[in-house]
């Protein structure tokens, strides 16, 4: 299948997409790349955002080596935000999440707060993080790939949005599958929902070694638990969102799941169903069987008039996260390259 054939698909615009209006960038920082912004209201109506950040000195691909989770708060979803510092980071020891803590997504569950995240470890590498900082892109490439292959899903919990955040256990919440399985290389990009059956459902992106020679294929699965902190058991029918049957290059990532009006919904980043700039939205009655994708949002230029910046990933939103109020999405938060310092920051869109 040619690239033209791959992307030549009738566009179906969702009702969700028709409700979006741009607000602007937030959390622009001269020293840090900002990514993965997860918003949540506190009991006083303030908005807390938990976000990925890593020093500009590591360039954009530093996310898998040196990322940590920051915390900011505002009286309005549109800002301005006050930064409260780092709340979770790797300890540079030999634990599975000792280097990078990335992909935070935060929820209130049973009266306390849970943060799901992706962790990585460079403990088995023959270099230090300081040495990686000094490398050019060619030198860093094999270490970047090695770090990617350590990505796993973890969990931290807190009694307050102000922390402290405590990691759950000393192993990943969702580990990779057996050799040859669809998720035998990576688990990451977590999302969460409490199912109507009372159990806790943890959605995650899986990535396998078998498709790696063709660029890899990212799919979504789910694991369930009777208790919030696990153990989580993978659903036997995984993967539940899989576009590889269309073409090995058609995939998805960055899922966010919520339940509204008795139905489950998921927003994802498109990776070939329509193109690589759109977001997708899919729906489900049971959280397992999902509808055909519609467009959740279009490319960034559709909403923001910013000059081309020449950066990798230019022109698209990633890591969509929703601010939920009274059970309904109120704002869409995404990561977006460029901005005041030409690195990356968060962008906010209102859902009318």
Automatic annotation (TrEMBL):
Keywords: Hydrolase. The keyword Hydrolase applies. It comes from the Bacteria. GO terms for molecular function: hydrolase activity. Gene3D superfamilies: Glycosyl hydrolase domain, family 43. InterPro entries: Glyco_hydro_beta-prop_sf. This is Glycoside hydrolase family protein. The lineage of its organism: Bacteria, Pseudomonadati, Kiritimatiellota, Kiritimatiellia, Kiritimatiellales.
